[in-house]
């Protein structure tokens, strides 16, 4: 029998969360962001549900080709654009749209032999200061692309740095939205500006929305709002079982470094899950976890292959009892990945991307 740890990808939850994005932006095309192998879920595993989206957005040519191999004929957007002039040939062959965020990318398009017809997303740096043209250079970049026979369409694009919160006392996106609107004024073409946080929190004119994390059942603005608030459902469940039970006496310790010490008689369970499965080693004593569907806490340091849980609220737990590291239990109890992430000093994004290759995945329809 294989080690009991496994991850479940829930198709019904993906379908549901996509519908939440659609309901929030009824006039927009909803692109599913599937970068980082669909936020750790596996592109092929989310495709059955997310093929109901209007398009896909991702980073690598290799991931784009995997989506084409699944039979997808709709739009695919490369969020970081092409990395070399050579990539433009792949964009033609696989009909990929791509971001243009740098002058050298415009030069590559200019030198690319016609009759290529590219659909480009011209990216404005409205304050994130990662990718994109400064507002002062944006209109010139647009004019230059607009004049090229190799360019079939230009979508105005920007990415918000603060759509999940506030910046300097004002709603996080106001200042970026102002800059964007002023800069594109009078230029034709559709817009793509909203990520998950903007979709849920800010009704904006975004012809194409780029929904990522919300599709995967994590709230972009946790802890201000939870997935229950946004009516999102967990799409990934990391499940395992108890391998052993230990009865501790006062002053007994648990795990490497003896970082946890019992202050009373305590029953603990040993779970087949460790940092080599992608569970964060930094997750401290007290990180929430489900045993037999009951919420309890981890105790002691996470080791490579195991971690320990306090069985006080689940006295009936035994070897073989189900453990949910995050997601849904078989009985329907849920532990939001956001709760685990906050306890571990990170975000749901990182936890779902971190599940390692040794964890087998199951697709649940
Ligand atoms: C990752 C990404 C998104 C999706 O963001 P979420 O917060 O996961 O919705 C949208 N746009 C760009 C440019 C991205 O890189």
From TrEMBL:
Residues 235-364 form the Alanine racemase C-terminal domain. Belongs to the alanine racemase family. Keywords: Isomerase, Pyridoxal phosphate. Pathway: Amino-acid biosynthesis; D-alanine biosynthesis; D-alanine from L-alanine: step 1/1. Catalyzes the interconversion of L-alanine and D-alanine. May also act on other amino acids. It catalyses: L-alanine = D-alanine. NCBIfam families: alr (TIGR00492). Its EC number is 5.1.1.1. SUPFAM superfamilies: Alanine racemase C-terminal domain-like, PLP-binding barrel. Its cofactor is pyridoxal 5'-phosphate. It comes from the Bacteria. The modification N6-(pyridoxal phosphate)lysine is found at residue 35. The active site is at residues 35, 256. CDD domains: PLPDE_III_AR_proteobact. This is Alanine racemase. Substrate binds at residues 130, 304. HAMAP family: Ala_racemase (MF_01201).
